[in-house]
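Fold this sequence, please.
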Amino acid sequence: MAHDVRHRQIPLNGIEMHVAEQGDGPLVLLCHGWPELWYSWRHQLKALAGAGFRAVAPDMRGFGQTSAPEDVAAYTIFHNVGDMVALVAALGATRALIVGHDWGAPVAWHAALMRPDVFPAVVAMSVPHRRRGLAPPLETLRKAGKGDYYWLYFQERAAEDEFARDAAFTLRRLFRIGFGETPKPERMSLYVDRTKGFLGAVRDPVPLPPWLTEADIAVFADEYGRTGFRGGLNWYRNIDRNWELTVPWHGAVITQPALFIAGRNDAVITGSMGQRALDELDSVVPNLKRKILLDGAGHWIQQERPDEVNAALISFARQHAS
């Protein structure tokens, strides 16, 4: 049937990429973040297919059933945007609406910035587009005395070891602390006490948020139990390299039609850096059509609030994905 999810491996850009595909019509690419998989878009695949679109959700480079190169330098923004450009061509298309969440949002933003001919519109969730700074981001954090910021912790082997110790616990904990309705003292912090790690010192059983089932968490845990977390963490290990590579786009703005969706309780936009990026979004994305902030929602927005996200996404796609 046209609306069944189809899975396949596609060779592109020097790797094998696993994709989940549903529906027929104008192409919509769905780029997940960390620590997620194609499965994070399960609700959007079905909704977009039902609305007359061809929705494709890959396991991004280093995740799930997609190749995970050993070289840390193989995870730059050029590689990740290049993967999406190559995927559009491999799917027999010339253009696509690109959608990204978490780390997938910078991929979507930069794909729109670098290849407007391929990506005529962009949707980002949770992570606003940022101005390119005057100095490398990690260096800037260190000089500002923010050595405990999670980007810096994720450069270390300790982060890999912490997360891989118990993949199921890690994922349950991350989904729990990033959920918008988790009590505020238990929510995600972007600053890490290295004596406790990113996940905290307590290893008590973690209740699932109501939007996840045990079967859902098993999909994530089985994959990460097999692959570990290194592939996704390598994206963070290219933050300063990405700054160096993107110098030709310094000061550039994204001119395509754009949509931004986030939860008001998302730590990514409520911290000082995220709030500043959110406040500046209209100036770096001047054709931003809507900025939707969902009350009570947290970081895992497309899983937490699929109905509202789907309605906004389909409305935008009907206008800009033809």
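Residues 6-320 form a domain with the Rossmann fold fold (CATH 3.40.50.1820). The longest strand covers residues 15-22.
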